[in-house]
Amino acid sequence: MRSLFARLRGTCWFLPILLIAANSPASDPYTEVDGERKPWISVIKPSESTPEGQLARADGLYQDGKLKKAGKAYHSLVKRWPRSPEAVKAKASYASVLVSRGKIRKAFDTYQELVENYAGSFPYEEVLAQQLRIAHEVATTKKGKFLFFPGFKDPETAIEMYSKIVSNGPQWEFAPQAQMRVGRIQEEIKEYDSAIASYMQTMIRYPDSPFAEDAAFGRIRCLVALSDASVNDMEVTEEGWHAIGVYQIKYPDSRFSEDVYRMRYHLSRRLALAAYKIALFYDEMASKPRAALEEYRKMARRFPKSEWTGKAKQRIDQLQMELEGMSEE
Asked: What structural domains does the chain harbor?
């Protein structure tokens, strides 16, 4: 039998290659460039020997309109000299190339890498503005262009983008708008609980922004929608009714006043009926006249103009007489 060494001797030639692969810049032998997977050996090697020269070459390709080649040149510079000053410019230019080529989601991620890895080395607000523009496009542009399939928006991706923008620049002048958009999209796709939380974040973080009022109204819309979806959930109905009361005090001249008034009436009617039913239960089912009287009084005080208040007041008078008669016996 051949020795173990003899059997392995013919295979040891590939061990150096395995060691090189194991210590390569990427655990995956392929990397993604312009949305395509290519061997990392072929893409990380720049054409020039210095970052300055490589940047000049990439800029020249970009100016000549050779976007795909320019993108590869910028990308290889960042991979080869990631800590160089030129890498910052190359990363930003690479994102710009991706935008020009219509690869906006990849461009957003590239800008995000710039924010995370090169903070303080580039015009921060310009990058945030580019990310905001991309997020707007993702939120409003339909995807899918096949015949008979008109496509649809991509709300999940847009929410993620807007959230990252707020995280990147919480004090940026357009951060309130981005936070507001998160809530609006969540409301549009009927994720009402998440939308309420996002609207609350807008109200709390940016109380003096023009979006605070819009967020407060958005929160009310979501609470009303949740109440309509579960008419017996008095907790969410109470929360909506209270939110409307606070809104009317804080924004007495709101452009949404008529809508808010209708919503208040809508929820008040639901709460009044629920309160009347509680009193009716004590009155007719539980045979507890004192408890019923108390509930009728509470209901009449809180909702003096409801369509059930007249009946409640009549029953209040009757129960008072009955209880007085019982006490005299």
From this structure: 22-118 (1.25.40.10)
